[in-house]
Amino acid sequence: MTTEATRTSTPYALRHAEVLDTRRITPGTVRVTLGGPDLVDLPHAAPDGYLKLFFPRLRGEVPTLPEVPADGDIGRWYRTYLAMPDAERPPMRTYTLRRRRDHPGGVEIDVDLVLHGDGPGSTWARDAAAGDRVAFTGPYGLYGPRAEHDSVLLVGDETAVPAMGAIVESLPTGTRAEVVAAVSSGAEVTSFTTAGEVGVSWVHGGPTLLEVVTQTDLPGERPYVWLAGEAGTVRELRRHLVRERGVDRKDIQFCGYWRRGKSEDQAAAEAMAASGATGEDD
Ligand SMILES: Cc1cc2nc3c(=O)[nH]c(=O)nc-3n(C[C@H](O)[C@H](O)[C@H](O)COP(=O)(O)OP(=O)(O)OC[C@H]3O[C@@H](n4cnc5c(N)ncnc54)[C@H](O)[C@@H]3O)c2cc1C
Protein backbone atom coordinates (compact mmCIF):
# COMPACT_ATOMS: atom_id res chain seq x y z
CA MET A 1 0.00 0.00 0.00
CA THR A 2 1.01 3.59 -0.47
CA THR A 3 2.53 5.03 2.67
CA GLU A 4 2.75 8.55 4.04
CA ALA A 5 6.50 8.45 3.30
CA THR A 6 5.96 7.90 -0.43
CA ARG A 7 2.62 9.67 -0.97
CA THR A 8 3.71 13.18 -1.76
CA SER A 9 1.78 15.84 -3.67
CA THR A 10 3.23 14.97 -7.05
CA PRO A 11 1.71 13.31 -10.13
CA TYR A 12 4.45 10.68 -9.83
CA ALA A 13 3.15 9.36 -6.52
CA LEU A 14 1.31 6.03 -6.61
CA ARG A 15 -2.18 6.45 -5.17
CA HIS A 16 -4.78 3.86 -4.28
CA ALA A 17 -8.46 4.67 -4.76
CA GLU A 18 -11.85 3.15 -4.18
CA VAL A 19 -14.76 3.21 -6.61
CA LEU A 20 -17.50 5.31 -4.97
CA ASP A 21 -20.01 5.20 -7.82
CA THR A 22 -20.44 4.10 -11.43
CA ARG A 23 -22.98 5.03 -14.07
CA ARG A 24 -23.48 4.85 -17.83
CA ILE A 25 -23.39 8.42 -19.11
CA THR A 26 -24.04 7.14 -22.64
CA PRO A 27 -24.70 3.58 -23.88
CA GLY A 28 -20.97 3.17 -24.57
CA THR A 29 -19.30 5.13 -21.77
CA VAL A 30 -19.07 4.36 -18.06
CA ARG A 31 -18.36 7.17 -15.60
CA VAL A 32 -16.49 5.91 -12.53
CA THR A 33 -16.14 8.12 -9.46
CA LEU A 34 -13.03 7.47 -7.39
CA GLY A 35 -12.13 8.63 -3.90
CA GLY A 36 -10.21 7.72 -0.77
CA PRO A 37 -7.57 9.12 1.55
CA ASP A 38 -4.76 8.98 -1.05
CA LEU A 39 -6.57 11.63 -3.14
CA VAL A 40 -6.46 14.29 -0.42
CA ASP A 41 -3.31 15.91 -1.82
CA LEU A 42 -3.95 15.12 -5.50
CA PRO A 43 -2.11 17.76 -7.54
CA HIS A 44 -3.88 19.86 -10.17
CA ALA A 45 -2.91 19.51 -13.83
CA ALA A 46 -3.87 20.99 -17.19
CA PRO A 47 -7.53 20.24 -18.04
CA ASP A 48 -6.63 17.27 -20.25
CA GLY A 49 -4.74 15.72 -17.32
CA TYR A 50 -4.58 11.93 -17.55
CA LEU A 51 -4.01 9.11 -15.10
CA LYS A 52 -2.19 5.82 -15.44
CA LEU A 53 -4.74 3.46 -13.89
CA PHE A 54 -3.69 0.06 -12.52
CA PHE A 55 -6.44 -2.55 -12.36
CA PRO A 56 -6.41 -5.52 -9.96
CA ARG A 57 -6.10 -8.93 -11.56
CA LEU A 58 -9.05 -10.05 -9.44
CA ARG A 59 -12.04 -7.76 -9.17
CA GLY A 60 -12.53 -6.28 -5.72
CA GLU A 61 -8.92 -6.82 -4.70
CA VAL A 62 -6.35 -4.08 -4.20
CA PRO A 63 -3.95 -4.14 -7.20
CA THR A 64 -0.82 -5.99 -6.08
CA LEU A 65 1.99 -3.58 -6.98
CA PRO A 66 5.62 -3.22 -5.88
CA GLU A 67 6.32 -0.91 -2.95
CA VAL A 68 7.38 2.57 -4.01
CA PRO A 69 11.03 3.03 -2.89
CA ALA A 70 11.51 5.18 0.20
CA ASP A 71 13.09 7.92 -1.97
CA GLY A 72 9.88 8.04 -4.05
CA ASP A 73 11.74 7.23 -7.32
CA ILE A 74 8.73 6.32 -9.46
CA GLY A 75 10.93 5.61 -12.51
CA ARG A 76 12.71 2.83 -10.62
CA TRP A 77 9.33 1.68 -9.29
CA TYR A 78 7.92 1.51 -12.83
CA ARG A 79 10.82 -0.63 -14.03
CA THR A 80 10.14 -3.03 -11.16
CA TYR A 81 6.47 -3.05 -12.14
CA LEU A 82 7.36 -3.90 -15.77
CA ALA A 83 9.65 -6.71 -14.58
CA MET A 84 6.76 -8.46 -12.78
CA PRO A 85 5.72 -11.76 -14.43
CA ASP A 86 2.95 -11.19 -17.01
CA ALA A 87 0.59 -13.41 -15.06
CA GLU A 88 0.97 -11.28 -11.92
CA ARG A 89 1.37 -7.73 -13.22
CA PRO A 90 -1.79 -5.61 -12.78
CA PRO A 91 -2.68 -4.15 -16.19
CA MET A 92 -2.18 -0.42 -16.63
CA ARG A 93 -4.24 1.79 -18.96
CA THR A 94 -4.43 5.55 -19.54
CA TYR A 95 -7.59 7.58 -18.82
CA THR A 96 -8.40 11.26 -18.51
CA LEU A 97 -9.32 12.82 -15.20
CA ARG A 98 -12.67 14.16 -16.44
CA ARG A 99 -13.65 16.17 -13.37
CA ARG A 100 -12.58 16.66 -9.76
CA ARG A 101 -14.60 17.78 -6.77
CA ASP A 102 -12.73 19.10 -3.75
CA HIS A 103 -14.65 18.76 -0.48
CA PRO A 104 -13.53 19.70 3.02
CA GLY A 105 -13.10 15.96 3.67
CA GLY A 106 -11.25 15.02 0.50
CA VAL A 107 -11.25 14.83 -3.28
CA GLU A 108 -13.45 12.85 -5.66
CA ILE A 109 -12.64 12.39 -9.32
CA ASP A 110 -14.61 11.16 -12.33
CA VAL A 111 -13.09 9.06 -15.09
CA ASP A 112 -15.09 8.26 -18.27
CA LEU A 113 -14.17 4.91 -19.79
CA VAL A 114 -15.30 4.05 -23.33
CA LEU A 115 -16.42 0.43 -23.80
CA HIS A 116 -14.98 -0.98 -27.00
CA GLY A 117 -13.78 -4.55 -26.65
CA ASP A 118 -12.23 -6.97 -24.21
CA GLY A 119 -9.01 -5.17 -23.20
CA PRO A 120 -8.45 -4.85 -19.44
CA GLY A 121 -9.65 -1.23 -19.29
CA SER A 122 -12.97 -1.86 -21.05
CA THR A 123 -13.49 -5.18 -19.26
CA TRP A 124 -12.94 -3.59 -15.87
CA ALA A 125 -15.19 -0.64 -16.69
CA ARG A 126 -18.05 -2.80 -17.92
CA ASP A 127 -18.54 -4.41 -14.49
CA ALA A 128 -17.04 -1.73 -12.23
CA ALA A 129 -18.96 -1.33 -8.97
CA ALA A 130 -18.73 0.66 -5.75
CA GLY A 131 -16.06 -0.81 -3.51
CA ASP A 132 -13.76 -1.89 -6.39
CA ARG A 133 -10.15 -0.83 -6.01
CA VAL A 134 -7.62 0.67 -8.45
CA ALA A 135 -4.28 2.44 -8.16
CA PHE A 136 -3.01 5.30 -10.28
CA THR A 137 -0.32 7.86 -10.96
CA GLY A 138 -1.01 11.32 -12.38
CA PRO A 139 -2.57 13.58 -13.40
CA TYR A 140 -0.24 14.64 -16.19
CA GLY A 141 -1.62 17.36 -18.49
CA LEU A 142 -0.54 18.41 -21.99
CA TYR A 143 -2.97 21.19 -22.99
CA GLY A 144 -1.11 24.51 -23.02
CA PRO A 145 -2.21 27.38 -25.28
CA ARG A 146 0.06 30.41 -25.24
CA ALA A 147 -0.59 34.16 -25.30
CA GLU A 148 -0.20 34.33 -29.10
CA HIS A 149 -3.16 31.96 -29.65
CA ASP A 150 -6.48 33.70 -30.30
CA SER A 151 -8.68 30.61 -30.28
CA VAL A 152 -8.72 26.84 -29.76
CA LEU A 153 -9.45 23.93 -32.12
CA LEU A 154 -10.08 20.56 -30.46
CA VAL A 155 -10.41 17.43 -32.59
CA GLY A 156 -10.77 13.90 -31.28
CA ASP A 157 -12.73 10.68 -31.05
CA GLU A 158 -14.78 9.19 -28.21
CA THR A 159 -11.71 8.51 -26.07
CA ALA A 160 -10.86 12.21 -26.33
CA VAL A 161 -14.35 13.45 -25.43
CA PRO A 162 -13.56 13.44 -21.68
CA ALA A 163 -10.47 15.60 -22.25
CA MET A 164 -12.22 17.88 -24.75
CA GLY A 165 -15.10 18.29 -22.29
CA ALA A 166 -12.72 19.20 -19.48
CA ILE A 167 -10.87 21.67 -21.73
CA VAL A 168 -14.08 23.31 -22.96
CA GLU A 169 -15.33 23.63 -19.38
CA SER A 170 -12.07 25.34 -18.39
CA LEU A 171 -12.08 27.99 -21.15
CA PRO A 172 -11.97 31.60 -19.96
CA THR A 173 -15.05 33.71 -20.73
CA GLY A 174 -15.42 34.54 -24.39
CA THR A 175 -12.63 32.26 -25.68
CA ARG A 176 -13.41 31.20 -29.22
CA ALA A 177 -13.19 27.45 -29.71
CA GLU A 178 -14.27 24.84 -32.22
CA VAL A 179 -14.69 21.18 -31.25
CA VAL A 180 -14.95 18.33 -33.76
CA ALA A 181 -15.75 15.06 -32.00
CA ALA A 182 -16.22 11.66 -33.65
CA VAL A 183 -18.49 9.23 -31.79
CA SER A 184 -19.88 5.83 -32.73
CA SER A 185 -23.53 6.93 -32.87
CA GLY A 186 -25.89 9.78 -32.05
CA ALA A 187 -26.54 8.19 -28.65
CA GLU A 188 -22.95 9.02 -27.64
CA VAL A 189 -23.41 12.78 -28.09
CA THR A 190 -23.08 14.72 -24.83
CA SER A 191 -23.17 18.38 -23.89
CA PHE A 192 -20.57 20.66 -22.32
CA THR A 193 -20.98 23.68 -20.07
CA THR A 194 -18.65 26.53 -20.97
CA ALA A 195 -17.96 30.23 -20.57
CA GLY A 196 -16.30 30.20 -24.00
CA GLU A 197 -17.85 30.82 -27.40
CA VAL A 198 -17.74 27.23 -28.55
CA GLY A 199 -19.03 25.49 -31.67
CA VAL A 200 -19.29 21.70 -31.47
CA SER A 201 -19.63 19.32 -34.45
CA TRP A 202 -20.46 15.71 -33.61
CA VAL A 203 -19.34 13.30 -36.30
CA HIS A 204 -21.06 9.91 -36.66
CA GLY A 205 -22.52 7.64 -39.28
CA GLY A 206 -21.27 9.61 -42.29
CA PRO A 207 -18.09 11.46 -43.18
CA THR A 208 -14.87 10.72 -41.33
CA LEU A 209 -13.31 12.99 -38.73
CA LEU A 210 -10.68 14.05 -41.29
CA GLU A 211 -13.32 14.84 -43.91
CA VAL A 212 -15.24 17.01 -41.45
CA VAL A 213 -12.08 18.81 -40.33
CA THR A 214 -11.17 19.61 -43.95
CA GLN A 215 -14.55 21.41 -44.20
CA THR A 216 -14.24 23.18 -40.82
CA ASP A 217 -13.13 26.81 -40.65
CA LEU A 218 -10.33 27.49 -38.21
CA PRO A 219 -11.82 29.37 -35.24
CA GLY A 220 -9.33 32.26 -35.44
CA GLU A 221 -6.20 33.65 -37.11
CA ARG A 222 -3.90 31.63 -34.92
CA PRO A 223 -5.65 28.78 -33.09
CA TYR A 224 -4.05 26.47 -30.57
CA VAL A 225 -4.81 23.02 -31.97
CA TRP A 226 -5.29 19.94 -29.79
CA LEU A 227 -5.68 16.53 -31.47
CA ALA A 228 -6.26 13.14 -29.85
CA GLY A 229 -7.73 9.77 -30.74
CA GLU A 230 -6.67 6.79 -32.86
CA ALA A 231 -2.98 7.27 -33.66
CA GLY A 232 -3.25 6.92 -37.46
CA THR A 233 -6.15 9.37 -37.61
CA VAL A 234 -4.30 11.86 -35.43
CA ARG A 235 -1.31 11.67 -37.77
CA GLU A 236 -3.54 12.36 -40.81
CA LEU A 237 -5.24 15.27 -39.06
CA ARG A 238 -1.94 16.82 -38.11
CA ARG A 239 -0.58 16.43 -41.66
CA HIS A 240 -3.70 18.04 -43.12
CA LEU A 241 -3.56 20.99 -40.74
CA VAL A 242 0.14 21.61 -41.30
CA ARG A 243 0.33 21.01 -45.05
CA GLU A 244 -3.05 22.19 -46.29
CA ARG A 245 -4.24 24.68 -43.68
CA GLY A 246 -0.92 26.35 -42.87
CA VAL A 247 -1.01 25.65 -39.13
CA ASP A 248 2.44 25.88 -37.54
CA ARG A 249 3.58 22.56 -36.05
CA LYS A 250 4.40 24.40 -32.83
CA ASP A 251 0.74 25.34 -32.47
CA ILE A 252 -0.41 21.70 -32.45
CA GLN A 253 -0.54 19.47 -29.39
CA PHE A 254 -1.28 15.93 -30.56
CA CYS A 255 -1.49 12.52 -28.94
CA GLY A 256 -2.36 9.07 -30.28
CA TYR A 257 -4.69 7.82 -27.54
CA TRP A 258 -4.87 4.28 -28.94
CA ARG A 259 -3.71 2.29 -31.96
CA ARG A 260 -5.98 0.16 -34.07
CA GLY A 261 -5.17 -3.55 -33.58
CA LYS A 262 -2.69 -2.91 -30.73
CA SER A 263 -3.26 -3.01 -27.00
CA GLU A 264 -1.84 -0.08 -25.05
CA ASP A 265 1.07 -2.30 -23.92
CA GLN A 266 1.88 -3.34 -27.49
CA ALA A 267 1.59 0.22 -28.80
CA ALA A 268 3.83 1.55 -26.00
CA ALA A 269 6.45 -1.17 -26.53
CA GLU A 270 6.55 -0.50 -30.28
CA ALA A 271 6.75 3.27 -29.76
CA MET A 272 9.63 2.79 -27.32
CA ALA A 273 11.47 0.50 -29.76
CA ALA A 274 10.98 3.02 -32.57
CA SER A 275 11.90 6.10 -30.54
CA GLY A 276 15.07 7.69 -31.80
CA ALA A 277 14.79 5.79 -35.07
CA THR A 278 12.22 8.11 -36.64
CA GLY A 279 11.92 11.86 -36.99
CA GLU A 280 9.06 14.24 -37.65
CA ASP A 281 6.61 12.58 -40.01
CA ASP A 282 4.49 15.37 -41.35
C1 LIG B 1 -3.50 10.60 -22.58
C2 LIG B 1 -4.64 9.59 -22.85
C3 LIG B 1 -5.91 9.83 -22.33
C4 LIG B 1 -6.94 8.92 -22.57
N1 LIG B 1 -8.18 9.16 -22.04
C5 LIG B 1 -9.17 8.26 -22.22
C6 LIG B 1 -10.45 8.45 -21.61
O1 LIG B 1 -10.69 9.40 -20.87
N2 LIG B 1 -11.42 7.51 -21.84
C7 LIG B 1 -11.18 6.41 -22.63
O2 LIG B 1 -12.09 5.60 -22.81
N3 LIG B 1 -9.99 6.21 -23.22
C8 LIG B 1 -8.98 7.09 -23.02
N4 LIG B 1 -7.76 6.88 -23.58
C9 LIG B 1 -7.61 5.73 -24.50
C10 LIG B 1 -7.40 4.41 -23.76
O3 LIG B 1 -6.21 4.48 -22.99
C11 LIG B 1 -7.28 3.28 -24.81
O4 LIG B 1 -8.48 3.17 -25.54
C12 LIG B 1 -6.89 1.95 -24.20
O5 LIG B 1 -6.40 1.13 -25.23
C13 LIG B 1 -8.07 1.24 -23.52
O6 LIG B 1 -7.59 0.05 -22.93
P1 LIG B 1 -8.31 -1.36 -23.10
O7 LIG B 1 -7.73 -2.22 -22.04
O8 LIG B 1 -9.78 -1.18 -23.12
O9 LIG B 1 -7.86 -1.86 -24.53
P2 LIG B 1 -6.41 -2.42 -24.97
O10 LIG B 1 -6.11 -3.70 -24.27
O11 LIG B 1 -5.40 -1.33 -24.83
O12 LIG B 1 -6.67 -2.71 -26.51
C14 LIG B 1 -7.43 -3.85 -26.93
C15 LIG B 1 -7.89 -3.63 -28.37
O13 LIG B 1 -8.86 -2.59 -28.39
C16 LIG B 1 -8.51 -1.63 -29.37
N5 LIG B 1 -8.96 -0.31 -28.90
C17 LIG B 1 -8.42 0.45 -27.90
N6 LIG B 1 -9.14 1.57 -27.72
C18 LIG B 1 -10.16 1.51 -28.64
C19 LIG B 1 -11.25 2.36 -28.95
N7 LIG B 1 -11.46 3.50 -28.28
N8 LIG B 1 -12.11 1.99 -29.93
C20 LIG B 1 -11.94 0.83 -30.61
N9 LIG B 1 -10.92 -0.04 -30.34
C21 LIG B 1 -10.05 0.31 -29.37
C22 LIG B 1 -6.99 -1.74 -29.52
O14 LIG B 1 -6.57 -1.30 -30.80
C23 LIG B 1 -6.76 -3.23 -29.32
O15 LIG B 1 -6.96 -3.92 -30.54
C24 LIG B 1 -6.70 7.76 -23.34
C25 LIG B 1 -5.41 7.51 -23.83
C26 LIG B 1 -4.39 8.42 -23.59
C27 LIG B 1 -3.00 8.12 -24.13
Topology, element by element:
Elements: E1 15-26, E2 29-35, E3 50-54, H1 74-82, E4 92-96, E5 99-103, E6 106-114, H2 120-127, E7 133-140, E8 151-156, H3 161-170, E9 176-182, E10 197-203, H4 209-214, E11 223-230, H5 231-243, E12 252-258, H6 264-274
Parallel strand pairs: 8-9, 8-11, 9-10, 11-12
Antiparallel strand pairs: 1-2, 1-7, 2-6, 3-4, 3-7, 5-6
The site of flavin-adenine dinucleotide (FAD) has 26 residues, from strand 4, strand 6, helix 2 and strand 12.
Question: How would you describe the overall organization of this protein?
Answer:
A seven-stranded antiparallel β-sheet has the order 4-3-7-1-2-6-5. The protein has a five-stranded parallel β-sheet with strand order 10-9-8-11-12. The N terminus is likely disordered. It folds into two domains: 126 residues, Elongation Factor Tu (Ef-tu), domain 3 (Beta Barrel), CATH 2.40.30; 108 residues, Nucleotide-binding domain of ferredoxin-NADP reductase (FNR) module (Rossmann fold). By secondary structure, the protein is of the alpha/beta class. It is built from six helices and twelve strands. Flavin-adenine dinucleotide binds next to strand 4, strand 6, helix 2 and strand 12.
